[in-house]
Amino acid sequence: MTAHATAGWSDEAGVLVLPSGRRVRGSGARRQASATPTLAVFVLDHEPPVTVWEQLWLPWLDFGLPLNPILAIDTLRSVHERLTCDRVEVSCAAGRGRTGCALSVLAIIDGIEPTHAVAYVRSHYRSDAVETAEQEQWLAGLVL
Question: Which of 6, 32, 70, 86 is most buried per CB count within 10 Å?
């Protein structure tokens, strides 16, 4: 582990602090951030841009749900574990809908009740996170 990896995110814009204290940065894929992640999780409906840091791609429809919900949840479980030592960034195109959904799944994994996850992410990340009723219903019904 490098010092960069163990430093975690500061309180910069877009950083969601989960109840456990783990930090994850949400972002739009086109946004230029001040610090680079050690792991980028792209939640996009197309292959992500090439990065010099490690990346994962979760195929996820714009204004919709992951194409493979089981794979998405399993991957986000692994990502949650990495939040203790890596600088993880979750990105969709704009950093709202799909990013908000993925952050909500991470919040649920971290112990937030599924019916409260969207409100938690909207309160601690972006007020416009999670864009559709379908996304909200999917998250509220998750059993992990």
Answer: 86
Question: Do 25 and 36 meet the contact criterion of CB atoms below 8 Å apart?
Answer: no
The rounded distance, in Å, linking the Cα atoms of 27 and 60 is 15
pTM as predicted: 0.91
Taking only the tens place, the pLDDT of each residue in 96-121 is 999 999 999 999 999 999 999 999 99
Domains within the chain, CATH numbers bracketed: 3-140 (3.90.190.10)
Instruction: Quickly list DSSP for 23-61.
Output: EEEEEETT---SS--SEEEEEESSPPPP-SSEEEEEEB-
The 10 Å Cβ neighbour count of residue 123 is 12
- For residues 72, 74, 77, 79, the Cα torsion angle rounded to the nearest 10 degrees is -60
What distance in Å separates the CA atoms of residue 110 and residue 121, rounded to the nearest whole number? 12
Question: Rounded to the nearest 5°, which phi and psi values hold at 133?
Answer: -65, -35
Give the DSSP H/E element, type plus range, for residue 91.
Answer: strand 88-92
Sign, CA dihedral 35-36-42-47, equals positive
